[in-house]
Amino acid sequence: xxxxxxxxxxxxxxxxxxxxxxxxxxxxxxxxxxxxxxxxxxxxxxxxxxxxxxxxxxxxxxxxxxxxxxxxxxxxxxxxxxxxxxxxxxxxxxxxxxxxxxxxxxxxxxxxxxxxxxxxxxxxxxxxxxxxxxxxxxxxxxxxxxxxxxxxxxxxxxxxxxxxxxxxxxxxxxxxxxxxxxxxxxxxxxxxxxxxxxxxxxxxxxxxxxxxxxxxxxxxxxxxxxxxxxxxxxxxxxxxxxxxxxxxxxxxxxxxxxxxxxxxxxxxxxxxxxxxxxxxxxxxxxxxxxxxxxxxxxxxxxxx
Length: 304
Description:
Blueprint: H1 2-31, E1 34-39, H2 47-56, E2 61-64, E3 66-67, E4 70-71, H3 75-87, E5 92-96, H4 102-109, E6 114-119, H5 129-143, E7 149-152, H6 157-165, E8 169-171, E9 193-196, H7 207-215, E10 220-224, E11 239-241, H8 248-255, E12 260-263, H9 272-279, E13 283-286, H10 292-303
Parallel strand pairs: 1-2, 1-5, 5-6, 6-7, 7-8, 9-10, 9-12, 10-11, 12-13
Antiparallel strand pairs: 3-4
């Protein structure tokens, strides 16, 4: 009985969401020939990609509800929204930073519209079997002409896929972020040094390395999104938590209040957080890109 009630509630909720998407789609259609689709954030996951996408395409982005990387619409609901998109007759549809379920959308939409994708990931993520599956499917869709063009946010990836697969690729750099006027800094203890380490708790973000080394400096207070993951350190009194899924303006106010922000990710030398920190005049420490191709060629040339 409870399961039937939950299913009924979910169906009614999805109908409301579909109606809202239809209204937003109509607004975009009136002034744009290109539609951009991206997935909604969940507890900070996909937050950076969502913000970056809206920054790149502020007037024609449509947020598709998802739960982490999972679809919330069933097959019939997906066909319903895809049919509405097709009826709008966009010249092109761009799918930005998408979860694997979007391949189902591409299968449906490419029949009538040119499809481009913007990939926000990096090569170092390809160690993950799920990422390998994703890249393999991306390659097969481009070869089958279901995807006409691929943009890469990370510099150098376009050259990789063009060289290896002869795809039509391009570098899609992030725009300089627009910082809202009137942002107020948060109240902080001025006798302390405040260091921000903001990011999701994934291996590639390298949070633990950065937090631990920042704590080695006397008088430093470290600011994070979620301090529960650092409980094992026994340093709760020197770590401040701000929450995982903050509204953008609130997050920027926190980011802009730091004395220093750290962004020493293993695979992103200059992500959106870095750009935002720079735009607000806060010092930032990041790791430089490594040009692997140049290093390899230099070694080969020395052997010849």
